[in-house]
Write a structure and sequence with these properties.
The complex is a heterodimer. By secondary structure, chain A is an alpha+beta fold. In chain A, 53% of the residues lie in helices and 16% in strands. Chain A has 10 helices and 12 strands. In chain A, the strands form 3 sheets. In chain A, strands 2-1-5-4-3 form a 5-stranded antiparallel β-sheet. The chains are: A alpha+beta, B alpha/beta. Chain A binds chain B through residues 236, 239-241, 243-252, 254-255, 258-259, 264, 267-268, 271, 274-275, 278, 398, 400, 404, and chain B through 9-16, 18-19, 22, 51, 53, 55, 78, 80-83, 100-106.
């Protein structure tokens, strides 16, 4: 069920109904037992009373036998007429009977209680035998009347309940609505919220059941605000980083347009080509960074480390060869399977390899080696001073040994990927020269 | 006019250097705050074009250091973060002007000229002396209503002399105006250019003060 209000309402109605029904059943059963007990006692008492009347000769059985109508004929309401009395001689003659008593003998048994069906209704009969007077007194009770008595009692109970039910339902519906008001207030507050409004919801004064929800929402707001702040910073930095090469491009283009000297123009055009390359690389890296940040950390599957490494190497082979360098791919990488995300791992390795190739000296070797925690990429370039290693993964940081087309984003991208994969990136200086970038993959991702 | 460009981006720095030279300036390039600081201590710059984001610190910090030691060289900030707060920080920190990247080379040159002019307390860009008028923006010289064709270096020397009419400028001072730090100085370049100027404006227009330098003379 979608509506909490309807759900609570139904639960309450069902529970109330159930309690009512059980109460009614209990009242019905106990009333019936009580009624039976009381009426049995009355039967007995009535029988004894009649018997004692005969005994004290207040009813002359001899006369009475001639006129069965002697017994007082009083018309009363149905409950008062529920007892029927018969007086039989022991010889089997009906001496007298009460008004409304059936003509048929109520019971054949001699003494005590018995039940018998007469004319389709069940009678409970109490019999007393008076051997001395030669009579038998039978006092009976129509059970249908007893049942009606009980039924009427229950009806008397159930009727007001049934009448109350609609107003109770109304009260419950209203009450549940009132009870859920803090929730609807929260919802209304959220509904009218601006997309930019990431302020925390007030926690003071909220119901204790809603407080965890509010706290969770505030936590979420905080995280969204943080992410947005990061994005804004990133965009503003990206804009800054794009403006500088664009500015260089524009200036060089103006020079090329205006100069009379062919040499100056050639130089400016060469600079323009480099600036375009650098801007393109920057845009590529910005997209890669966006890709790394957007990639879900999930989607892990077993990957062959050697083939991921090979793929990263393939894209840079031509560049390295142009510098007279070579790749060395550790043979022990073969057959190593890591449980990882293909996009993120590929992006990280590609950037590390690209970085190594960019900084590799002419004829240098770029190594891809298996390490205990994952894989490392090493070059023989100028490396980085320790102070720069600490800042190397900040976005747009370009060290002192920068390349003209570097974006300052490569290592930042690798770090984002590593973090998403549950691992980390460590940089260290190599002896005698070069940089070693090790990608530690999460321990659980190793096999 | 000697200009110090402080810009870490190699391509933009090179472009500024070449472009400002084409506009009649004598630019020097520093690629980090430390290098810029050393160059400023050596002195001799008419203005500084300063990038805000430098690899070894911020341009704002360099500017503060300059002003604290009493260096009043006009400074134009080059900002990529084109935010009002940034511009305010620069101007309040002692900058004289700012320009957001990417900018127009001519505008940069004009703003630098304006800075230098204001620094010298002049009202217009034109320089006038003894019937000779100089337009630094167009690198044009006019004598008695007739334009006189000048090379960039000739113009630079004439410009320097006309900025301080009557004052004596030494050969070293003129050389400083002609060449950046990285350029090799030709030994008799100043004499050659002065000679050419005399042939265009009359031999008595520039007077040689023996052992001291050169100055302009009313003819």
């Amino acid at each position: 069920m979608r509506s909490m209000r309807a759900r609570l309402f139904l639960i309450l109605i069902a529970a109330t109904g159930l309690v009512w029904l059980s109460a009614t059943a209990w009242v019905y059963l106990s009333t019936r037992a009580e009624v039976e007990h009381v009426l049995d006692a009355r039967l007995m008492e009535a029988a004894r009373m009649v018997s004692s009347l005969i005994d004290s000769q207040e009813i002359d059985t001899a006369v009475a036998s001639l006129d069965p109508g002697i017994m007082p004929d009083v018309r009363h309401n149905p409950y008062e007429r529920q007892l029927s009395c018969q007086i039989w001689s022991l010889t089997g003659t009906l001496i007298g009977k009460s008004d409304g008593a059936p003509a048929e003998r109520l019971s054949d048994h001699a003494d005590g209680f018995a039940e018998r069906r007469i004319n389709g209704s069940t009678w409970r009969v109490y019999a007393i035998r008076d051997e001395k007077r030669g009579v038998q007194v039978l006092v009976g009770d129509n059970l249908d009347i007893r049942a009606r008595l009980v039924r009427d009692m229950v009806k008397g109970l159930a009727l007001p309940m049934t009448l109350i039910l609609p107003s109770l339902a109304g009260l419950l519906w209203f009450g549940v609505g009132r009870g859920l008001k803090p929730l609807s207030q929260l919802a209304a507050g959220l509904e009218h919220r601006d997309a930019d409004d990431l302020h925390a919801l007030p926690q003071a004064g909220t119901a204790s059941e809603i407080r965890p929800v509010v706290a969770a929402l505030n936590g979420l707001f905080g995280r969204v605000a943080e992410a947005r702040e990061r994005e804004r910073d990133f965009l503003s930095y990206a804009a800054h980083e794009l403006r500088t090469p664009l500015s260089g491009l524009k200036t060089q283009a103006e020079i090329a347009l205006r100069t009379d000297r062919a040499e100056t123009r050639m130089l400016a055009l060469t600079q323009i080509v480099t600036a375009v390359e650098r801007t393109a690389q920057l845009v590529r890296q910005l997209l890669a960074m966006a890709e790394a940040e957007a990639a879900p950390a999930a989607g892990l599957r077993p990957l062959d480390l050697a083939s991921v490494a090979k793929e990263a190497v393939c894209g840079q082979e031509a560049r390295l060869r142009a510098k007279g360098g070579t790749f060395f791919v550790d043979p022990s990488l073969a057959g190593v399977s890591v449980f990882s995300n293909e996009t993120l791992l590929g992006l990280a390795l590609r950037n590390l390899v690209e970085n190594a190739v960019s900084h590799s000296p002419p004829g240098g070797t770029v190594n891809l080696v298996r390490t205990e925690g994952g894989i490392a990429v090493e070059d023989e370039g100028p490396g980085m001073p320790d102070a720069e290693i600490a800042r190397a993964t900040s976005r747009f940081f370009r060290g002192s040994n920068r390349t003209p087309v570097g974006s300052g984003l490569g290592l930042a991208i690798v770090e984002v990927c590593a973090e998403k994969l549950g691992g980390r990136l460590t940089l260290s200086r190599r002896r005698p020269a070069g940089l070693r970038a090790e990608l530690h993959l999460a321990a659980s991702a190793n096999s | 006019m000697r200009i110090l460009i402080v810009e870490d981006d190699a391509i933009l720095g090179d472009g500024l250097k070449v472009g400002l030279a084409m506009n009649g300036f004598t630019p020097d390039l520093a690629v980090c705050a430390a290098e810029a600081d050393a160059a400023l201590l050596a002195g001799g710059f008419s203005a500084v074009a300063l990038d805000v984001m430098l690899p070894d610190g911020s341009g704002h910090d360099l500017l503060r250091t300059m002003r604290r030691r009493g260096d009043a060289t006009p400074v134009l900030m080059l900002t990529a973060l084109d935010r009002v707060a940034d511009r305010i920080q620069g101007l309040d920190g002692g900058a004289d002007d700012h320009l957001g990247k990417p900018f127009d080379l001519d505008e940069l040159a004009a703003r630098l000229r304006a800075l230098v002019r204001r620094g010298a307390g002049r009202l217009t860009a034109h320089l006038e002396f003894a019937g000779v008028s100089l337009d630094p923006a167009r690198m044009e010289a006019v004598r008695g209503g007739d334009p006189v064709a000048l090379s960039r270096r000739e113009f630079t020397i004439l410009h320097a002399l006309m900025e301080h009419p009557g004052a004596i400028l030494s050969r070293a001072q003129l050389e400083e105006r002609l060449y950046g730090f990285q350029e090799g100085v030709e030994s008799n370049a100043v004499e050659v250019h002065v000679h050419h100027l005399r042939s265009k404006f009359g031999s008595r227009f520039i007077e040689t003060v023996r052992g001291v330098g050169y100055r302009l003379r009313r003819t």
